[in-house]
Design brief:
Helix content is 52%, strand content 13%. The protein is built from 14 helices and ten strands.
Length: 351
């Protein structure tokens, strides 16, 4: 009996040491996350900014979320678009509907004047073209598609411009962006399901509870695991192939049902991320080559071959102008290239 008791004690000691080391490791990791990483993470910064903005307006988180257009289906962004009426009172008015992100919305330029959709409206207004701009800052190609799905019919468009920069291709894989929850398509085999955006109040409460109960590190692990495709795109190209095909089929269905052309446009932009070139290749095929929609008219236009020579001829610093948000010069170049394409394909050809 005495020998058996002695033989058990080392296991108890090793177990106790293991538990002690595990607890110590948790304290060290959690303290590092709480004191250093959390205070510098984009997630915490955006959540704090959202709270501060709500407080400035004297609103609750839920009330402020409604003010900025937050909903479970789109994520954020109000459905109201900028509408540019044609300058000529022609009988055959054509409506061109734009969806996109901050570039198309005119961020960092005079929105409504210097952004490329507004410039296209000015270029083609005397030819009876109405331009509707539904772009929303921070949107990925998934949210652009959801925006089209719910609002395109309201404007009775004669054509749709689905415009993106490479960074918009990675955003569908994240369920949180710019401090706000967003929907995310998830796949099980060939089946897709749209996981609606989490409520902003619930998201903040979960974060606060994790921080106060000293388990914020596990909250971060859970968050990164849910969005692993976003942080490791090179390992999850199947996900992006599926999401682009899903959106491509949706665009084809829209084109076929409304009997209008849909032009998928890759805007000029050189702000790359890990795996961006591969995703650009996947999108160029997946967004415009769906199956089963024989009468659909979905085309792909890369603005680079037009914009680059124009920038070179005008001695524009291409790398600086198109690194992130282009300035007025960049928008003018894109407007000239895309405006000429729209004119030749949709306007002049029909007159």
């Amino acid at each position: 009996m005495k020998n058996n008791e002695l033989s058990v004690k080392p296991w108890i000691m090793w177990l106790a040491m293991f538990l002690l080391m595990a607890a110590l490791a948790h304290v060290i990791i959690e303290s590092t996350v709480q004191l250093i990483l959390a205070n510098h993470s984009g997630i915490w910064r955006y959540l704090s900014e959202f709270r501060n903005n709500a407080q400035k307006d004297g609103l609750s988180l839920d009330q402020y979320g409604k003010k900025v257009g937050l909903d479970a289906y789109h994520g954020w962004g109000k459905a109201d678009g900028k509408v540019y009426e044609p300058s000529s009172n022609l009988d055959n008015i054509k409506t061109i509907l734009f969806v996109g992100d901050s570039v198309t919305a005119g961020h960092d330029v005079k929105s409504g004047e210097e952004d490329y959709p507004a410039r296209i409206a000015a270029m083609l207004g005397d030819k009876g073209v109405r331009v509707v701009n539904l772009a929303v800052r921070g949107y990925g190609v998934d949210q652009m598609w959801l925006k089209l799905l719910t609002t395109a019919g309201n404007y009775h468009p004669d054509a749709v411009i689905f415009a993106y920069i490479p960074h918009d291709l990675i955003r569908p894989a994240n369920d949180f962006n710019f401090g706000l929850p967003k929907p995310k398509f998830r796949f099980s085999g060939s089946h897709s399901k749209l996981a609606l955006a989490e409520g902003i109040v619930d998201l903040n409460q979960e974060y606060d509870d994790a921080r106060s109960s000293f388990r914020l590190s596990w909250w971060f692990i859970s968050y990164y695991w849910k969005n692993k495709e976003y942080y490791l795109p090179a390992l999850f190209t199947d996900y992006y192939t599926q999401i682009y095909r899903l959106i491509g089929e949706g665009l084809a269905q829209l084109s076929q049902e409304l009997k209008i052309p849909v032009i998928v446009v890759k805007l000029t932009n050189i702000d790359e991320f890990n795996g961006s070139r591969k995703l650009v290749q996947l999108a160029a095929s997946g967004l415009v080559h769906p199956t089963g929609w024989q009468s659909a008219k979905v085309s792909y236009l890369d603005l680079d071959p037009c914009v680059k020579p124009k920038a070179l001829a005008q001695q524009v610093d291409f790398d600086k102008e198109f690194y992130h948000h282009p300035g007025p010069v960049g928008h003018t170049l894109m407007a000239e290239c895309l405006g000429d394409y729209i004119d030749s394909l949709l306007i002049s050809a029909g007159r």
